[in-house]
Amino acid sequence: MKKTRKLLVGLGVLAVAGLVLIAADHIDAPSSAGTSADIADFFAFEPSEGSDNTVFVVDVQSNVLPDLAYGTFDEDVLTEINVDLDGDLVEDVVIQAIPRNGRMYFFGPAAPSQTGLTGTVLVDAPLGDVEISGTTAIVETTSEGVSLFAGPRQDPFFFDFFQFNAVINPDVNSAPRGFSTPEEAEDTFDGANTMSIVVEIPNSLLGSPTATNALGLTVYKTWVTTNRKQ
Ligand SMILES: [Ca+2]
Ligand SMILES: [Ca+2]
């Protein structure tokens, strides 16, 4: 375990030195589309009704072929889950994940020293770490009841990408029948992977939200950014 501690210390030193990373966006952002910082999906949900936990799932990269998927997290990319508690759409706590030597290291939840897209600094609050999975899923659960996973998962995006492109083509003859029926449509991403980062965490560690949604229910307002080391 000496090695693990050294890595954590190494990351801590980076935090002290003020590791600043620049935020990216998902596939519509030219700076990140098709790169290792490309966000494919973000899910946040209660794992079962009445649960006191929240699950966050971040998929980075899409259409990763199984043979290429393993170990493809980018060590220069920090993934940040932003959580707004009070409804002003500014993050109050963040959970961060960054890979090193085959493991994913998680930090937070903690208040970030910088908010928004001006730059992201690693928070000095280790949460736990997990070996990046290959064909067998490895889940690590911390003493605080936080479960962590990082590794390839089948791409959850069901989409006939080629027919979509044909339909939106300005040449009206490219898809004269429009979209395919569900029976005829092909799931272009079937058999491809995304690289998933999953955190299941007790709500008590995130803090008590006062933000409300359109239905008046108290909610966490949450979004994800990827940040590439400059
Ligand atoms: Ca806030
Ligand atoms: Ca942020």
Describe the global form. globular
The helix tally amounts to 3
Sequence of secondary-structure elements: HEEEEEEEEEEHEHE
Number of extended strands: 12
Mean pLDDT: 82
Structural class: mainly beta
**Uncertain regions spanning at least 5 consecutive residues:** 1-28
Q: Tell me the domain tally.
A: 1
Distance between the termini: 30 Å
Helical content, roughly?
Answer: 10-25%
Main sheet?
7 strands, antiparallel
Radius of gyration in whole Å, from Cα?
Answer: 19 Å
Spatial strand order of the main sheet: 7-1-12-4-5-6-8
Bound molecule types: calcium ion
What portion of residues belong to β-strands?
Answer: 35-45%
Protein name: DUF4331 domain-containing protein
InterPro entries: DUF4331 (IPR025566)
Keywords: Signal
Pfam family, one: DUF4331
